[in-house]
Specification:
Blueprint: H1 11-25, H2 44-57, E1 64-65, E2 71-75, E3 92-97, E4 112-114, E5 122-123, E6 130-131, E7 146-148, H3 157-175, E8 184-189, H4 203-206, E9 210-216, E10 221-225, E11 228-237, H5 253-262, E12 279-287, E13 291-300, H6 303-323, E14 328-337, H7 341-344, H8 349-360, E15 366-369, H9 375-381, E16 388-390, E17 393-394, E18 402-404, H10 405-425
Parallel strand pairs: 3-8, 3-9, 9-16, 10-15
Antiparallel strand pairs: 1-2, 2-8, 4-7, 5-6, 7-18, 10-16, 11-13, 11-14, 12-13, 17-18
Amino acid sequence: MTAPLALTLDATEKKALLDRFLRYVQVDTQSDDEATCFPSTEKQKDLSRMLVEELKALGCLDAAMDEWGYVFATVPSNLPSDHPAHGKVPALGFVAHVDTYPSTPGGGVKPQVVAPYQGGDLMLTGTGDRIAADTPHLARCLGHTVIHTDGTTLLGADDKAGVAEIMTMVAWLKAHPDFLHGEIRIGFTPDEEVGRGTEHFNVEAFKARYAYTLDGSELGEIEDETFCADTAIVTIKGHDVHPGYAKNVMVNAVRVATALVERLPQERLPETTEGREPYLHPYQISGGVSQAEVKLLVRAFTEEELTEREDSLRRAMDEVRSLFPKAQLDLEIKTSYRNMAYPISQDPKVLDYALEAVRRQGIEPIRKAIRGGTDGSRLSFMGVLTPNVFAGGQSFHSVKEWVSLEWMAAAVGVALQINAVWVEKSR
């Protein structure tokens, strides 16, 4: 049997992919992790409105943005009524997020296009710094068109590469009507970077049981596991008095907070762990002498390990209480998301078909667990099983972020192959 051919973009289609990406990254869509509104920044909707109009121009006449900033659209099935898979292929979702990371400058992006990349360091003209030639995966992109930041902002490939790839898939399907596929649902979400990307996601309106986020990194990556994630908030109450008369009276909540952080297990911090190792990450201390607050990220691939990390925090709190018996320490645990491997393992074809699609594109799939989360984490628990597919970007959240256009084009090909595999397997 002849192996399926890779689905490639021609030069015009690749240029259109590049143009989309360059246009999207120049729209400031930075989210805000301190905001309480949704979306956390109104400017995210600027890109969402653009996408609605572009989707309509590509034939997705139902494209619309709802009050929360979510964009949904449909590419109708084109399977003939006599096709063996007609009426059997479930609607498939393709999802990406429009917002960018809040803690690195994200406005005024000046993308730099190197075509072709011929090796060596990539100069960041805005700062005089450079992306070193030995940066992971850069040497694999010799001869590629590489897009990077000027060093003053992030690039926004996370996840505007995914947005551009999904839009290019829609354009390709319009230009190639003989390519048979089932119904495709498009979803663009706000606020993924602040962990709220599915907070108002209308699963019933999305109408897809299976979906794929294009929000991964390295060529060939398919991710079906994420961390289990909680946020721990330790509130410390001290007692403030005039420092000139504080002996045996003052209880300094700032010192208590510092002592707590110092007593966290040193071998279970983000900077000392990798792979499948869990961690506790103290990422914010605020307050003063009378009251302070320590916020920590708790991350592990299993719920059992997550509980162990939280118990280690409780033990550290007990040690601190013995040092500062007059201080009051209270702990609140907020659930963030759970490992999407749990629901996906109950219906693994959504993963298996993605791995097959990567192989059909002539790429060796790399199955990975994400040391983080995606919209797919929560979506999978909300009834939309959603593994993560590579989008090609590198050095996410950094002023040294970059992406290969060829890897982006390959991601478009994989998305198309996913549709083809579902048609074939649904006969």
